[in-house]
Amino acid sequence: MFSNKKKKDSQERSEKSAVDLQRIPKHIAIIMDGNGRWAQQRHLPRVAGHKQGMEVVETITKAASKIGVKVLTLYAFSTENWKRPLDEVNFLMDLPVKFFDRFVPELIKHNVRVNVMGDEEQLPKKTQEAVNNAIEQTKDCDGMILNFALNYGSRTEIIAAVKNIATDVKNDKVTTEQIDEDLFAKYLLTGQLTPYNDPDLLIRTSGEQRISNFLLWQIAYSELEFTDTYWPDYLPENLYHDIVVFQQRDRRFGGIKTQKGENESK
Ligand code: FPP
To answer: 54, 99 in Cβ contact below 8 A?
Structure first.
């Protein structure tokens, strides 16, 4: 009889062995949803779900970096999340402090660089400090980028990009003729992630099938996967499974398949 741990390990190994290591999605973005429902199911306060969610961030970060993902973008706090009860908001603002306090040495060991995108100025000072310290401490790591979307909203990001381009046009730094998709992408917060600005794969946990103001420009050609698993239950084997599903998709980017099976834009 298999113990639970042995069963889990063997499931993880079998999902992992199905992954084609030559075709790993370079940029994976995740909407980590279902923390509250996970806690509710266990008659625990909602914040217990966020706490467990933080543990999962650690596990999934390690698994993603080991398998060769270049950028892992995690939606940790949206510009809409301020509407939650103050206690919950405070708890969520404390999570990066706890997380980086404990996990930065591990990140460095795994050669993972921290990046944060979102309106930092609205964050409490201690959160800002924790984030900036983590960015500084991991700045020389050149493996995977762990990119937290923190106080992030995609529409705000797009408006800011438009305003910055308008200013640059006014100051003769850019001409209107120069404005194209490539230039626009540079003005977005994901401009820092070049050449992996756009996610290849977007995963949302918990069964909800919404984008919730996340990376609206960047996901134009991303593969979308919605899984019923709540984020605190999301294991490396779930990640491997989602990567396998991604690898079975036929990505054409609006083009057609050539006879050789390569993509050709129309
Ligand atoms: C959505 O679940 C989740 C969040 C708003 C917070 C996500 C944050 C974490 C997983 C931890 C982040 C860790 C670090 C290190 C910053 P929900 O609360 O909306 O769940 P529900 O839909 O079931 O209520």
So the answer is: yes
Q: Do 55 and 95 belong to one domain?
A: yes
pLDDT in tens, the chain (266 residues): 456 777 777 778 888 999 999 999 999 999 999 999 999 999 999 999 999 999 999 999 999 999 999 999 999 999 999 999 999 999 999 999 999 999 999 999 999 999 999 999 999 999 999 999 999 999 999 999 999 999 999 999 999 999 999 999 999 999 999 999 999 999 999 999 999 999 999 999 999 999 999 999 999 999 999 999 999 999 999 999 999 999 999 777 778 765 554 544 43
Q: According to the annotation, is 80 in a ligand binding site?
A: yes
Annotated catalytic, 233?
no
Is 147 marked active-site? Answer: no
37 occurs within a structural domain: yes
Q: What is the DSSP string of 58-91?
A: HHHHHHHHHHT-SEEEEEEEETTGGGS-HHHHHH
Residues sharing a CB contact under 8 Å with residue 153, sequence separation 6 or more, in sequence order = 78, 79, 80, 118, 213
Residue to mutate, 30, 31, 35, ligand 1, most ligand atoms under 8 Å from C-beta: 35
The reply, when asked if residue 12 is annotated as ligand binding, is no
Asked if 84 and 69 sit in the same domain, the reply is yes
**Among residues 4, 9, 20, 81, which one is catalytic?**
81
Answer yes or no: is the C-beta of 197 below 6 A from any ligand 1 atom.
Answer: no
Answer whether residue 1 is part of any domain.
no
Task: Supply the range of the domain harboring residue 162.
Answer: 154-202
